[in-house]
Every structure is written in C-alpha cells, then in structure tokens.
Design brief:
Elements (H helix, E strand, L loop, with lengths): L9 H10 L4 H18 L1 H6 E6 L15 E5 L4 E7 L6 E2 L1 H10 L4 E3 L2 E3 L1 E8 L3 E2 L1 H8 L4 E5 L1 H5 L10
Helix pairs in contact: 4-5
Length: 164
C-alpha cells in the first residue's frame, strides 16, 4: 500500500507534479492550469483580475501558443500576459527561454474593434536560477514585467491541497 505525501505547500504540489510519469509538454500544461487556478484563487490577483483564461481559451487569441500561456483581464480593462515555466529548481533560465514571450506579448490585438496591447507581463517560473542575460532582459522591458518565484507562490494564503 502506498501513501501520498499530503499537500501542505506549493513545494509539495510541484514535487507531486514532477513525480508524475508524463512528458514535458503535459508537465507544462498541468503547470499552466495550476497557475490559472492560482490567479483565480489568490486574494491579490482576485482583486486585480476579473477574468483569467488559458491562451487556448482566450477569445482574442491570434494563433497558436507561441509564448503566452495565460491572459488575465483586469477590472480596469487592461490585459496581462503570463508565461509559465515549469523547470527543475536548479535549471538556469536563459534569455532564449523567454524571448518568444516578449515577442508575442508585444503584438497588438483587438477587443471590441479597438486596438489593445498588454499593459503588464508576468513570468511564473519554478527555477530561481536565471542567467545574467535573462535577468537583464526582464529588467529592461518597456512594459511592467513581474517575475513570480516559487517563494512568492508559497507566500500565498491559498490552500494548495485543492490543486492536487
């Protein structure tokens, strides 16, 4: 008889995800759905976003997923592009790992016939090990860009066991 480790934190949940015997694409898809749930459940983001959509479900998408994983619509009508990176904790994130996100999230799109752009960007990553070029790239964005670390997720008051 096997017993699963109870989920008490994001760390436990990420370990559970990593232990799943699936391919990398499925790991990424699971992490994207987890982060969608996080943005919907975390009190800070609940007060900021009225709608959170996976790219594949977003009604204004202009093509296949080329770097944007989640789109959050704010109560103010602004849009935030989110990229989710599910890596081993010691993987060194390279600039090339995030370039497509910056390119894709710079494209104009239309909502109700009006041109829009993403006014904020968020990268959620399970590795805090970033190369100097990746760090510089995120710091030099013209649009407000936030990096969420595993510790930021762990600081959330949400019940991670609900996502197991």
């Amino acid at each position: 008889m096997t017993t699963e480790t109870p989920i008490r934190s994001i760390h436990d949940l990420l370990k559970q995800y990593r232990d799943m015997k699936i391919n990398n694409r499925d790991h990424g898809d699971n992490f994207e759905r987890l982060m969608k749930g996080y943005f919907e459940a975390d009190p800070i983001y609940q007060s900021r976003f009225k709608k959170v959509s996976l790219w594949s479900d977003w009604e204004h998408k202009w093509g296949p997923d080329c770097g944007i994983d989640i789109v959050c619509e704010g109560y103010d009508g602004d849009f935030t592009a989110v990229q989710c990176k599910f890596y081993l904790h010691d993987y060194e994130v390279q600039k090339k790992d995030i370039d497509s996100f910056f390119t894709e999230s710079g494209i104009e799109f239309k909502v109700d016939g009006k041109k829009k752009t993403f006014t904020n960007k968020i990268i959620v990553c399970t590795s805090d090990n970033w190369s100097k070029n990746a760090e510089r790239s995120i710091a030099k964005q013209a649009v407000n860009t936030t990096r969420l670390r595993v510790q930021d997720l762990d600081d959330s008051p949400i019940d991670w066991s609900k996502f197991s």
